[in-house]
Amino acid sequence: NEKVTFALLGNQNSGKTTLFNQLTGANQHVGNFPGVTVDQKTGIIKGHPEATVTDLPGIYSLSPYSNEEIVSREFIFNVHPTCIINIVDASNIERNLYLTMQILELGIPTVLALNMMDEVRNNGGTILVNELESRLGIPVIPISALKNEGVAELVEHALHVAKFNEGPARQDFCGAHEHGGAVHRAIHAMTHLIYDHAEKAQIPARFAATKLLEGDALVNKALQLEKNEEEMMGHIRQQMEEERGLDAAAAIADMRYSFILSACADTVVKPQESKEHAR
Ligand code: GDP
Ligand code: MG
Ligand code: K
């Protein structure tokens, strides 16, 4: 069997370490205080000696705003995991999907572990998993890491996308936004502009293009653009900002949130208010 490497990516407190321990059988300390998973922990998946998983620091975005974000990103770019397991706290899904949007831009085979489903169900909520899956274009597997429910199915799906190198079905989420055209055109133009540089730097081109528009200094440095390309980038960004009436980072964040809000409005059934009051 060929070697498979999984990277576990998710927000803080989404259950990464709990899932890691279920996957590996390791008795790793689980805690909420910062710094607990700053060291990356790698373990072998139970019953699958060819597959390893690395528990990465909890992050909210793939921008270089914090050490945790830089460490996680460097791991992706340097280690080239076969598959990303994106763990999402289903009880806080809107916020957690902001990272998912950025992971999808990497184009790496990814599965979404929709965690804390026990909590969602206990509160009387549900999530339309098949619909969410088709919106996102990646397998979505409801799990409870705490209760070890759905974890075997998660492993099967992750091994499958890894084996067949199945990347996300879609990466362009601009369409959910009434002003999505401007952002779509800018990302498209940037991807073309920087394609060769991204390939050389081994950073996925669409991801690099979006990050450059957001003003990511580390990606900019890694790509070593020519002076005329820097100027072109400035023009592309400026045009997007003028069309949107927002600065570039805000325009892109807005595009992501619009998609998330629309997807969640159609797939997340919140607990009934009446049920809250009855307790
Ligand atoms: P990490 O910060 O992503 O590593 O998250 P942890 O694994 O430390 O989990 C954060 C908290 O959520 C802990 O108190 C866990 O016991 C709890 N937790 C993790 N998974 C689940 C789950 O599936 N259901 C419930 N109810 N709680 C969970
Ligand atoms: Mg942890
Ligand atoms: K919780």
UniProtKB/TrEMBL annotation:
Localization annotation = Cell inner membrane
Q: Which residues bind Mg(2+)?
A: 21, 24-25
Q: Where does GTP bind?
A: 10-17, 35-39, 55-58, 115-118
What range(s) does the FeoB-type G domain occupy? 3-164
| Highest taxon in the source lineage | Bacteria
Family classification: Belongs to the TRAFAC class TrmE-Era-EngA-EngB-Septin-like GTPase superfamily. FeoB GTPase (TC 9.A.8) family.
> What exactly does this protein do?
Probable transporter of a GTP-driven Fe(2+) uptake system.
Task: Supply the name of the protein.
Answer: Ferrous iron transport protein B
Which organism encodes this protein? Alloprevotella rava F0323
